[in-house]
Amino acid sequence: xxxxxxxxxxxxxxxxxxxxxxxxxxxxxxxxxxxxxxxxxxxxxxxxxxxxxxxxxxxxxxxxxxxxxxxxxxxxxxxxxxxxxxxxxxxxxxxxxxxxxxxxxxxxxxxxxxxxxxxxxxxxxxxxxxxxxxxxxxxxxxxxxxxxxxxxxxxxxxxxxxxxxxxxxxxxxxxxxxxxxxxxxxxxxxxxxxxxxxxxxxxxxxxxxxxxxxxxxxxxxxxxxxxxxxxxxxxxxxxxxxxxxxxxxxxxxxxxxxxxxxxxxxxxxxxxxxxxxxxxxxxxxxxxxxxxxxxxxxxxxxxxxxxxxxxxxxxxxxxxxxxxxxxxxxxxxxxxxxxxxxxxxxxxxxxxxxxxxxxxxxxxxxxxxxxxxxxxxxxxxxxxxxxxxxxxxxxxxxxxxxxxx
Length: 405
What we know:
Layout: H1 2-5, E1 10-22, E2 29-37, E3 41-42, H2 74-88, E4 94-95, H3 98-102, H4 110-120, E5 127-137, E6 140-150, H5 154-172, H6 181-195, E7 197-198, H7 209-214, E8 216-217, H8 219-232, E9 237-244, E10 249-257, E11 260-264, H9 266-269, H10 271-275, E12 293-295, H11 297-300, E13 304-306, H12 322-326, E14 329-330, H13 335-343, E15 352-357, H14 360-372, H15 376-379, E16 386-392, E17 397-403
Parallel strand pairs: 7-8, 14-15
Antiparallel strand pairs: 1-2, 1-3, 1-5, 4-6, 5-6, 9-10, 9-13, 10-11, 11-12, 15-17, 16-17
Helix pairs in contact: 2-4, 6-8
């Protein structure tokens, strides 16, 4: 009935667009709206009815996270599903649910829903933005047409999807679906770090193709690849965006392990990212920093800041923290625990012993004993080599290893 009533009257047609691009200094998407208002045109009919959103081919991962989706309002979920079907099938355009408009949504809600969709779906590597067209009658929004911006042709999308899946299958062949969530998270964390180089100039570095095919990426690529693999392993994992204490934008993950929610930062787990290739000794230096493997909100906020799209859980569990699981988490200076930690290593020259403390006081006491008072030599035999170490005062951690240099 509504369509009949607005025939042969003036409609205002507004066309708006969102363009996505990588920030010059770091990797987060920067979406800047560009709006152009057209002159009012006399319409003989209202906008075309919404297309049927039943894609014959879908590029979506059926195991993708629904973390942000579950935290949207019912109206926002309607538009999320509309965008999901359109972008997942490479459709040219389609109408967003008019029910969403009746429930109070307008064009200002599009970007949030779009970004939530991308946070849940790292497999949408070919999407870099969107445009929308708003149809109005006076001050009333009649409908909104949505279209994704695709940076690749359909044939290329299909080819790259196959390349990504083949690379992911190879990685996932190294871990059983029967393993615990913690084992899966640790495996993905370590595997991606060992097989990916941090490179600001890497092609496709805003998406997972950069990691699985080029093996070079930036934080957005690391985080999306982590999410993609863990989702396929049945682990709840979503993308998180914010900043770090250096003032840069950053991306990492939130994961659900067996015992609860944790934060995970694969990029910061890559020692090459934090130190720079030229600063890493040729031998023995640990390639993986475990300070960001399943950490609490309190631990994360020592170095990171959150700018979430949806409410985030307060991560307080520590059971599946790397140091707790490995028995190298110290609440106080304990010589017996130290001896046990170093004894459980096999003495190999490349064996790394990682320690983390609960408090600053504990950290300084153990650091003073092992390093300043040379107590490390009571626990670790350097043989003909030497004992090297690194420490992270903000992370309250330290690592020790033997080199032959």
